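In this section we walk through a basic example: taking a raw amino acid sequence and producing a predicted 3D structure, encoded as discrete structure tokens. The instruction is simple. Fold the sequence below.
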Amino acid sequence: MYKSLADFINRLESAGELVRIGTLVSSDGEIAEITDRFSKAEGGGKALLFENTESGFPVLTNMMGSERRIALALGVEFLDELPARIDTLLKEALSPKGSLIEKVRMLPMLTDVAKWFPKKVKGRGACQQVVLMGEDADIERLPVLKCWPSDGGRFVTLPMVNTIDPDTGVRNVGMYRMQVIDGKTTGMHWHIHKTGARHYEGYKAQGRRMPVTVALGGDPAYTFSATAPMPDNMDEYLLAGFLRQRPVRLVKSLTNDIWIPEDCDFVIEGYVDTAEEKFVEGPFGDHTGFYSLTDLYPRFHITAITHRRDAVYPATLVGIPPQEDAYIGKASEKIFLAPIRLAIQPEIEDMTMPFEGTAHNIVIISLRKRYAGQVTKVVQSLWGAGQMMFNKYMVAVPQGLDIRDNATLAALLRRVDTSQNIIRSEGVYDVLDHATATNGYGGKLAIDTTDIDPQSKVEPYRLPEKIEPSDGVTAVLTDYTEAWGAVVLFAEEYADIESFIRKNGLDKVNYIAVFDSRAEGLPASDLVWLGAANSDPRRDVRSVGNALILDARSKRPGAEGNPSRFPNVVTASPATIELVDSRWAEYDCGEFLPSPSRRYRQLLLSESEQW
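The resulting token sequence is shown next.
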């Protein structure tokens, strides 16, 4: 695998997957806007190396933001090679061994597995070539990005946060954004559901200060492993070792007893005082495509910063999909399918999380159905499993069908009986979800298509030739009606949706999605993203006749059943857009790419406020 992040950069360049930008750029908005244009280019664009920043350190963005680059990051040519390796490993390990010879044949594989375990090494690593302590340990020396105009400040976005369970001594490596408060202090944004938060509560119960060491860079397998949905108490560096096919070499932090990869680029050491009052963290333009709500989080106090002499600062941009995190999620989807089959539901054949679902909101599974109630069992078990508990909308399809083919999905959903094939529940949400009135808790909905033949005959809908807007409905879109069974309405807040539906005979279709009038003109993929992000199925999905109605309009804060705050979508400021437009030739980064934010600014609820 890779000896350093610089080694991976060289690999990207040799593969034609890297653009170098040598002109001086700002970490305040400019790098993010350039990155956003590449992230949303066809196939994820290119990785970007900004060689000239105010800090003197180069900045790497979008390094895993395509199927090709995430595969290269994990040491394979194609992502499908990884699940094949895992399947083989699990089948060998778990198959019955009837004879002594078969058991002996397992020994080489067990020897290989032992080689993946992380190893502690003596002395300092390359990550400790330069040591900054005392007043010199100032995080404002690093090119930490401010990505979006309403962000609460600059945020470290690709940190590998190393913590230790105070009761068991087991290490966890998580990825929790870090808002810079001042040169010596950042926030530590671990959600209540995350292992870091559990460790924090453990130290707090013991009345102890919590040591934390943050690593940045190195082999990209480390970064990926920190994002992976690993079971609690399993070492992320073991996963990295498996991906690398060699162990992660660890060195001890200088100011606490936490061990980190010796070949990473930056190390930020410190502690969280569990007796200290939390601070108001955020807002932050998040992977949901909206600003995440402000909340109280712990402060991280810096005791030392070390780095390589040739350190490169890695950063990621999140926002309206697709972004780099979508491709990281694709890798997790493929890698963890085999363990999900093994540990949760063996009947699951395949699973995918479309980009538009921003990881958790939309999941599609195919399964081998043998008995009544099986789909409900599988869906409910997934809603209680690890990070899958954050899912809102799920579609179950018959085995043998391509769940990534839109034509197949359309044929199945067009034939659904909405009075019979809907499974509802409630449960845990990601705390970043802004649509629910109950933080971290909301509705869930699944559509069961497992008994549907996508080739079966279907009666055409008989709708009026022309549907005139009225009752607060400003536009009607029927482009998706015959293929998907869906009608899209754009409407004002006061619109009488039910009256409009019945008056125009729309209650005969399968699905009706209702959006704010300002969303008119967005492409289908954006409407899918907006529909999932802006809704809570327990409040926003209801039936009128045969039609299942999804109300994805913005929710008026404070109204009954609505969240107390409702955020803006994430877009660049007009000034930043114009700056990047005017400097594009200076960047020498290829054909001009227009700003995606120009399209999304029509969705803004307010120009001057986050909410």
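Looking at the output, two observations stand out. The chain has 19 helices and 30 strands. The two ends are 45 Å apart (CA to CA). In the next section we compare this with other chains.
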